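[Meeting: bench + compute handoff]

Bench side (C.D.) handed over the final construct sequence. Compute side (W.E.) agreed to return the predicted structure before the next meeting so the bench team could plan truncations. Sequence as handed over:
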Amino acid sequence: MMLRSHLLRRNEPALRDAFHDVLLRDAPAIAAGIPGIRHYAMNAVIDQSYRMKIEPGPFKLDGITHMWFEDQEAMERILPQSALSSTMDSAARIISNFSTFLVREVRFS
């Protein structure tokens, strides 16, 4: 399985609740309509003060998304043609920056 993850930071003018509404309502509806996504998860950060006893890093996050695909070839074939690619302009209004990671998932159970 190939996992594509995004670490999201909202634009400061965007209210946190409005940002979470988009993340938790709109994005999953779009992802549900994309054939080939094996699983989709959206995580809205609700508390950044809850940390282990490790010095916090300089980053702040407002959301994390995960999309699972059968493999990287399937991901590269599906995403450019999907509704997700057409939503990036509207997403730019609420997201100030994001980082994308491709991860090969290995499950042990």
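W.E. noted at the follow-up: Residues 16-32 form the longest helix (17 residues). C.D. will use this when planning the next construct.
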